[in-house]
Specification:
By secondary structure, the chain is an alpha+beta fold. The protein is built from 11 helices and 6 strands. A hairpin with a 2-residue loop joins strand 3 and strand 4. The longest helix has 25 residues.
Length: 281
């Protein structure tokens, strides 16, 4: 699931890919399954190949999506064994990784996730993507340059947490001046409603406009509160209203302030934030 999510950006699509991989496993004859020495490796390779095929159609769907398409935020317990923090972002917040992955070609994305995040050898990756090991090394190097270039502009995780906390306090209090101060002058806000709920269809650009947009939303919804939370990608703010999470806000922060604000409002991308917890026996 973690491999598939890194490649596809939504849990639902990752579940489809994993389900198809297991369906192919169980369609094998018993002697064929018995001949596979490393079932986990086989499943990872098949899942990755399925994801590579899905990425092309996924990009087409993103282009036809209502408003900006943003990666799905998931709670930190969703992928507890995920080694994503070890990749080339070093001590910067890993929330940036999914943003960078979206800028990669399908082949770059698959190779980078398999090699740099999950340490799959290039020889095995070559079989998955249908390219030579040397070509896979080049794809990984290209993807790594994108990640490092993006990560070099970001602040360390501790500073990122401080900025997110300050942003939340200012937004909850309606302090427009403090909110503007936390933002880079060229800050960009993107809202993902997917046509399911109200959201801005275009980017909101500029610290003053972003701050006024956010204070306007909160001012019209007196029961709305922003609370600090963690996603599998790092610190964020959860939008709580009437006992439900109605949005997740993630950030890109540089030494000059917050440069990117992403509001995921599409309820189809928030189901894991509103799943009831079963009472303990």
């Amino acid at each position: 699931m973690s491999v598939a999510f890194r490649m596809l950006g939504t849990v639902a699509e990752a579940e489809d890919a994993v389900q198809e991989a297991y369906a192919r496993w169980y369609r094998l004859a018993e002697p064929e399954r018995a001949a596979i020495e490393a079932p986990a490796g086989w499943l990872t390779r098949v899942t990755s190949r399925i994801c590579l095929d899905m990425l092309g159609s996924a990009r087409a769907r993103h282009e036809n999506y209502v408003g900006p398409w943003l990666p799905e935020p998931v709670p930190p317990t969703e992928f507890p064994a995920d080694p994503v923090d070890k990749v080339a972002l070093d001590d910067t917040v890993s929330a940036a990784l999914l943003v960078v992955l979206e800028s990669m070609t399908p082949a770059e994305r698959v190779v980078f996730v398999l090699h740099d995040v999950f340490a799959v050898p290039f020889g095995e990756i070559a079989e998955t993507v249908g390219r030579s090991p040397a070509a896979c090394r080049q794809l990984a190097a290209s993807a790594r340059r994108r990640v490092r270039a993006f990560g070099s502009r970001l602040v360390p995780r501790g500073e990122h947490e401080r900025v997110v906390r300050s942003f939340g306090v200012a937004a909850n209090s309606g302090d427009l001046t403090a909110l503007i101060r936390s933002l880079d002058p060229g800050a960009v806000l993107r809202t993902d409603g997917g046509g399911v709920t109200r959201a801005a269809l275009n980017e909101v650009v500029g610290a003053d406009r972003v701050a006024r947009f956010l204070t306007g939303i909160i001012g019209k919804r007196p029961d709305l509160q922003l609370r600090e939370t963690e996603t599998s990608e790092g610190p964020a703010l959860a939008m709580h209203e009437n006992g439900h999470v109605v949005g997740i806000i993630t950030f890109e922060a540089t030494p000059g302030g917050i440069t990117g604000v992403s509001m995921i409002l599409n309820p189809n991308k928030l189901t894991r934030w509103n799943t009831p917890v079963s009472p303990s026996l």
